[in-house]
Amino acid sequence: MKYLDEFSDPDLAGKLVDQIRAATTRRWAIMEVCGGQTHSIIRHGIDQLLPDEIEMIHGPGCPVCVTPLEMIDKALEIASRPDVIFCSFGDMLRVPGSEKDLFRIKSEGGDIRVVYSPLDALTIARENPDRQVVFFGIGFETTAPANAMTVYQAKRLGVKNFSLLVSHVLVPPAIAAIMESPTCRVQAFLAAGHVCCVMGTEEYPELTEKYQIPIVVTGFEPLDILEGIRRTVIQLESGRHELENAYPRAVTAEGNKAARAMLEDVFEVTDRAWRGIGMIPQSGWRLSPAYRDYDAEHRFSVTGVHTAESDICRSGEVLQGMIKPHECAAFGKECTPRKPLGATMVSSEGACAAYYLYRRLEVTHA
Amino acid sequence: MCLAVPGKILSLSDRDGTLMSLVDFGGIQKDVCLQYIPDAVIGEYVVVHVGFAIQRLDEESAKRTLAEFEHLGVLNEEFGDGFEIAAKQAGVPVPGSTATTEVKS
Question: Under 8 Å CB-to-CB from A85, ≥6 apart: which residues?
Fold first, then answer.
């Protein structure tokens, strides 16, 4: 129990662990969908505090990791153009494309800017009317309201030199895809609290019913995750499969109605390829026809992108929960956060980076 | 990027017809769009995602979460300079900084 004293409330953490232990009578495999939760679980050793019967499988919920390679290569091509100011969240800078990354393009003279909010990119566009300003709009349902509002404002204010390179992905179709996989071992999910802040929880009962799995919405802090696992185990042990909201301080059933209305207006659902996983039907958003003029893929016809993934990187299997990061032969050897082969080693929400940061010594000497 | 951080609304403003606010995240202040929580008032706590408030949060929960994030160093990752963070991770200077010319990538 070496980690318990690092919790903000060690007594409560200890009680939750005891309750999970008392409730567990057999083996269960639980997937946390969200990369932020993966990071927290590994950092705090939550998986090591749990009884041996409970396995945490790390899911595909790191948006940086699942943005398709083709989209990264398109971003790199657009960002290299002299008339373009390419704006991005900082997390994307070192995600490997087929040959380079955005950080490299910047060092080669590309005008790449890291912004906190996509609205900052719109401001840059208004200040530079003779340049094309492109924002790399990636992420799950959490970042989508910000990107949707920014495109809406660009249209409303007539900022014609702004466009969005869109690669949004959605959580519920990913849960369905994981459950449909013939190799699926997942018996329950922790759903991502902040996705549900926006979207609410109405999409999930259909999944609990169809796949007979408990889904428990929870947050990112260690105590939230322990409480989520506790409720999940109790459902599993009693044979129930329901949606439970263990994060009511931030999540309501209906989510944020204003944000959902904006998402409905600006985006439409589309098939989306997930890096390392492949095509998942109806699993992403693209700009709806009314906003197509602001789509960077339409504005810059990028052709001749030939994608090439690393031959030895197994991040796809990591993202699908089929292997743990250290089971990849390249882990900590050819592949480190300094020289990442796959996106899962770059992002702080990637499972490989989390294992490298907090588990490297244990797993390589095991 | 993918983390929502609670903060306290310090002031409200209208920018080109968009409801904006200044929000304090444990000492770091940022412009935050309030279009999705349009009835929020000064002094309230909101959960903020990439510059957009997406939910309200009670003060006690917000303060506890902020303290936890600060302790974990998460706030720097969210609000720090993206190029500096990436350069540190890569073990190279920030592109465009004076030291870059000495490095062959």
Answer: A111, A112, A113, A124, A125, A128, A131, A132, A133, A134
- Asked if the C-beta of B63 comes within 8 angstroms of chain A's C-beta atoms, the answer is no
Per DSSP, what are the bridge partners of residue B21?
A: B12, B32
Domain B5-92 has CATH 2.30.30.140: yes
ipTM surpassing 0.85:
yes
**pLDDT tens string A160-211:** 999 999 999 999 999 999 999 998 999 999 999 999 999 999 999 999 999 9
A120 in contact with chain B, both atoms CB, cutoff 8 A: yes
Is some CB atom of chain B closer than 8 A to the CB atom of A337? yes
Task: Write the CB contacts of A93 (distance below 8 Å, at least 6 apart in sequence).
Answer: A101, A102, A103, A106, A112, A114, B82, B83, B86
Distant-in-sequence, close-in-space partners of A316: CB < 8 Å, separation ≥ 6: A275, A276, A277
- B50/A116 touch (CB, cutoff 8 Å), yes or no: yes
Q: Does A137 touch chain B (CB under 8 A)?
A: no
CA of A161 vs chain B CAs: smallest distance (Å): 18
Token pair in block for residue B34? 């309030």
Residue A237 to chain B, least CA–CA distance (Å)? 30
Across the range B55-80, mean pLDDT stands at 86
Domains of chain A: 68-170+256-299 (3.40.50.11740)
Angle (deg, nearest 10), helices A10-23 and A222-237: 20
Cβ contact B89–A120 (<8 Å): no
A358 has a chain B CB within 8 A of its CB = no
Q: Is B25 helix (H, G, I), strand (E, B) or coil?
A: strand
The residue type at A364: T
Ordered by start, the domain boundaries in chain B are: 5-92
Integer Cα distance of A325 and A284 in angstroms: 26
Q: Is B73 helix (H, G, I), strand (E, B) or coil?
A: coil
